[in-house]
Write a structure and sequence with these properties.
The protein has 312 residues and is an alpha+beta fold. The protein has helices at residues 18-28, 64-67, 69-80, 124-139, 164-174, 180-192, 238-241, 245-255, 259-279, 286-302, and strands at residues 37-39, 47-52, 56-61, 91-95, 105-109, 114-115, 200-202, 211-214, 217-221, 228-230. A hairpin with a 7-residue loop joins strand 1 (37-39) and strand 2. The longest helix has 21 residues, at 259-279. It is globular. The chain starts with 17 loop residues before the first helix and ends in a 10-residue tail after the last helix.
Amino acid sequence: MSTTPRLGPVPQRIAVDANQVRRLVADQFPQWAGLPVQPVANGGWDNWTFHLGSRKLVRLPSASEYAEAVDKEHRWLPALAPELPLPIPTPLAKGEPGAGYPYPWSVYQWLDGEPASADRIADPVRFALDLAGFLAALQGVDTTGGPRPGQHNWYRGGTLRTYDGQVRRALTALDGHVDVNPAREIWKSALDARWDGVESWFHGDIARGNLLLDDGKLAAVIDFGTCGVGDPACDLAIAWTLLTADGRQAFRERLSVDDATWARGRGWALWKALVTCAHTLGDAGDSAASALRVLDEIFSEYAPGAVITPKP
């Protein structure tokens, strides 16, 4: 699940509480009216998420921009699920505005698991291979009629040039705080790496919060709000944000990623890391430290033996 806002202008979010969710469920799905409603801990940014009993969850978009994904998920998740080797969310019902809440919303089957993190992954190479196998299967699904990049998914699957202005502004802000010269070179390499135009399905937000573990193994993939059909390079960013060096190599080999696609994937990871660093400049929190670690991973893989670290 996305636990931070999409980079760029932050949508105006609305608040939702458990009593409001109870009213929505009772009014529209009375068969579930007796089930308890409790907020999900760290339930995400794009959606407010609540437990509905022990085996269901309610997801309510937190802003109009995020509500665009509701119909898409109800249309496409049932079509994608049979083609994939791991569980993905199963929509059970689609709700309508009501009880003072203005957007469509969803009831899903609950998926067990804990969000992936480096310390929870039992075997980093096995995890990388399992994730690559999932993405390979997703990329193999028929794209006919699939949603192309647009506002509904923040232009994932489209050109990196959409974010060139953000990256340039971040590099200007970070100059003197990190070594921006290698970052400029890597970004240019990503922009120059051409896509062959062969469309495939992508998830759009393959990140640790959307990868669930069971006993340290990849068990499910959630939050398809940014999914679509286009250039799948955006799904490669996880190679630098979570995978180990050995895992990254295994991941690339399993997916048979060519140099140009790998460069674009690196660009997606770099974009998010740079903008996060710029937004958290001067902070000592986890987000700032994590973004700096990602920059080090990106640059050390691009130019072995070198790292991007804060200047004194």
